[in-house]
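Predict structure. Chain length: 191.
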Amino acid sequence: MKDGLCERLEDWPGFMLLPEDFGKIIVARKPAGAYFGTRARPRPRPTYRGTSPRTPEIVSFRVGVPPGYECWPLEQVRRYFRVLLDHALDELRAQRARENLEYLGVDAVLAQSHLDRPGPVINDGSLNPRIACAGDPLLLYQVLLALGTWKIRYRAAYENLREGRRAVFPPGTWGRHRFPRAIPLPRAPDP
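Prediction complete.
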């Protein structure tokens, strides 16, 4: 709804989980065709440690409640998040109405090709700063200095990781903790 694809959640044909689904078991069957090994050219199957490379025909999972709400009664959690969702949807509708924005509609969305893409991005020469500090030059200097320090620390950790040494990445590094020898720095405690 935020992007103007459809006006009501109930109209959307794709998969979604709503507050009413908390606690339910969802069963999904593997669809035939694309994304599941039907390629024009056969490729060697990857080998996985301790698991089968085949996608199961049927999978099921239980939809959990958001973290922190496990001790609430299930119906109360569903009602609470339904009220929050309805309130957010009403605000989105009101904002789109104020801005005179229309909805594309499900038929128009489904008529689009997944191969479509936007046209070329052209640099018009306008300002596109990495950091903007609303006219505070001291703050801008401090933030740019911190960013430069962060980049230096990240690069040093990356080089250590490439060389097979222990690598300590700075806070704000996404995904590096998954690699052996990559250790993110602990976050500073909140005051």
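Summary: The chain has two domains: 9-39+55-110, 137-184.
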